[in-house]
Amino acid sequence: VELSCIIKSTVTQDPRIEWKKIRNGETSYVYFDNKMQGDFATRAEILSRTSLVIKNTTRMDTATYRCEVAAPSDTKTIDEINIQLTVQ
Description:
A 5-stranded antiparallel β-sheet has the order 4-3-2-7-8, with no helix packed on it. The protein has one domain (2-85): Sandwich (Immunoglobulin-like), CATH 2.60.40. 17% of the residues are buried. By secondary structure, it is mostly beta strands. It has no helices and 8 strands. The chain has strands spanning 2-3, 16-23, 26-32, 35-36, 44-47, 51-54, 63-70, 78-85. The protein is globular and about 40 Å long. InterPro entries: Ig-like_dom, Ig-like_dom_sf, Ig-like_fold, Ig_V-set, JAM-C. Pfam families: V-set. GO terms for molecular function: cell-cell adhesion mediator activity; integrin binding; protein heterodimerization activity; protein homodimerization activity. This is JAM3 protein.
């Protein structure tokens, strides 16, 4: 599955991008400090700097995924989007 976090425009040279998984009220990192975290390290990757691709998805991947972008040089320094993923 591919989850996209599209950055339309930014003046910040290298905005910080993080992906988090929110399930049952608990938040965990998926992509942090430019690398995959936890069990995502072996089955997920970042495409085009912003899209999260999760391979071999299971029902345990059902959650809200949050993409957070920090761009300190922009007028809006931080933004986020939540994507609800349901695996049948």
